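Reviewers of the previous submission asked for a worked example of the structure-prediction workflow described in the proposal, so we include one complete record here. The input consisted solely of the amino acid sequence. No template or homolog information was supplied to the procedure at any stage.
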Amino acid sequence: MATLKALASLLFVLAGGWGYFRYRHRGDEKFSLPVFGALLCSMAGDVLLALDHKRGMLFLLGVACFSAAHVLYSLAFCRVSAVSGMDFAVALAVFGLLLSLMLWGDFSYHGLLPVLVGYAAVISFMTAKALSLWPCRRERGSTAVLVAYGGVLFLLSDIVLLFWMFGKAMPRGVQYMNLLLYYLAQGCLAGSLFQSGRKRI
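From that input alone, the workflow returned the following structure tokens.
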């Protein structure tokens, strides 16, 4: 299953790369280049997690790759919508919810809780910045809509992944839900890269 997820990530990279290289002459590199880099980091994270079997160093490297992807996504979104106090407020609220879930949920972290807390902080800000583009949808069109949906779906997929990887006696359906949300998130963000090239944002 992890191998199929890595192959799917490759398809998203190819789709996003097609949009990036086809439309890069239109001058939107401040948005498109970080998004393309984020797709590459996500693919690397999927490959590392596919190779990991004991949640050791490869797992940590995979988390680092996904964190780098969210940092790059955040950078791209910040270049469309400037950082505001509301972004920090939303990020703090999301982080608080994630932290509460991680601390009071029935999980077995095997010493990885500090890593997950750091990751939660990164994805909380990325989600906040993705949502900040929603009010821009009239000016930015489908790019802003895809970014907003993609950010929220990515957050939801990681919440489900938390239950799948660290929850106790989780049914197989939890993994399928994670994959569905993750594929939808990656599809939205790869699509935003293609749409931004068609119409400069």
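The mean pLDDT is 86. We consider this example representative of the routine output the project will generate in years two and three.
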